[in-house]
Amino acid sequence: MTFQKKDILDMESLSAEEIRLILDTADSLKEISTRPIKKVPTLRGKTVVHFFHEPSTRTRTSFEIAAKRLSADTVSISASTSSIVKGETLTDTARNLEAMNPDVIVLRHAAAGAPHMLARVVRSSVVNAGDGRHAHPTQALLDMMTVREKKGCLEGLNVAIIGDIAHSRVARSDAVGFRKMGARVTLAGPPTMIPRGVEVLGARVTYHLRDAIREADVIIMLRIQKERQEAYLFPSEREYATHYGLTLEALSAARDNVLIMHPGPMNRGVEIAPEVADGPFAVILDQVANGVAVRMAVLYLLLGGPR
Questions:
Q1: 260 or 79: whose pLDDT is higher?
Q2: Measured between alpha carbons, how far is 253 from 69 in angstroms, rounded to an integer?
Q3: Active-site residue 59, yes or no?
Q4: Do the beta carbons of residue 30 and residue 260 sit within 8 Å?
Q5: Catalytic pick from 25, 42, 47, 59?
Q6: pLDDT of 51-103, one tens digit each?
Q7: 5: annotated active-site residue
Q8: Is-catalytic flag, 136?
Q9: Which residue in 116, 133, 134, 136 is the catalytic one?
Q10: What sign for the dihedral angle of Cα 171, 175, 177, 178?
Q11: What residues contact 26, with CB distance under 8 A and at least 6 apart?
Q12: C-alpha–C-alpha distance, residues 108 and 112, integer Å
């Protein structure tokens, strides 16, 4: 199969076959990161612009490492150091960047739909590195890669996503992605953090932690995104941790070989106990490692893969 997409903006626009191609490509590229010299000339002469309007550690760093391991030239821009602080619109900034002929623009933005708008006005490929509450496709892809690596498949698995569903672009992208690959998805959290109509994603909804994890093969914990909440939707972090924090005691209700995941950053002692985050079921650092491989695959397929 050849990859025909100009942009990667969300999980809805990727078919199951395209997702499988990205994951297979990431599997083959992961080995590069274990070499003494972690670089191949695949994208030599290509230019990748990383344009981040929101803070990021894992996503931004892994995109930059991914581009450099494929020998692409990289430029990093943040909102605070761009002309946006002088009143320039995102579209004008993008068109000025495009005049310099970059091959890919990786965009993270607080506004949902910003990467989609950008993709319509520039010829460069656009990769969504997270837009508001909407989507985070490469996070979903690395989550699926990690699960497939550990479980051998995705089809037929039970995936529980627990926490601040209402404000989580990861929850939306994971729910769509895992469902497309044949997994069953359960969303769980306080009623105030479960948006109305979320069942349209094809997921089961529950408000009880133990109900969500009882049959789960994979548990994805989410942090409370206070920066996106106009008002606190829970009485206190202590009460949240009591009812929705994943502790060793709560984990006793889960299957023996369950995987524990978290997109980061973690709030230890709130949504996940330290002994769970550092325990034998956690594959959180595997997610980070696979993030580099998935982003290498995305850049390769957009720029260097077979057409």
A1: 260
A2: 42
A3: yes
A4: no
A5: 59
A6: 998 878 899 999 999 999 999 999 988 766 666 666 788 888 888 888 999 99
A7: no
A8: yes
A9: 136
A10: positive
A11: 141, 142, 145, 290, 293, 294, 296, 297
A12: 10
Residue 39: CB atoms within 10 Å: 12
Which of 2, 34, 81, 86 does the annotation list as catalytic? Answer: 86
Question: On the CB side of 8, how many CA atoms lie within 13 Å of its CA?
Answer: 28
Q: If pLDDT is split at 50, 70 and 90, which confidence band does 307 have?
A: very low
Residue recorded with tokens 């959290």 = 189
- Pairwise pLDDT comparison (235 vs 3), residue with the higher score: 3
Of the residues 58, 214, 228, 268, only one is catalytic, namely: 58
Q: What percent of the chain has pLDDT over 90?
A: 79
- Please confirm, yes or no, whether 86 is among the known catalytic residues: yes
Q: Is the separation of the CB atoms in 253 and 211 below 8 Å? A: no
- pLDDT classification of 2: cutoffs 50, 70, 90: confident
Name the catalytic one among 46, 53, 60, 108: 108
Torsion of CA 57, 165, 287, 302, to 10 degrees: -80
Active-site residue flag, 58: yes
Q: In the chain, which ranges are E strands?
A: 47-52, 73-78, 104-109, 125-131, 158-162, 184-188, 204-206, 218-221, 259-261
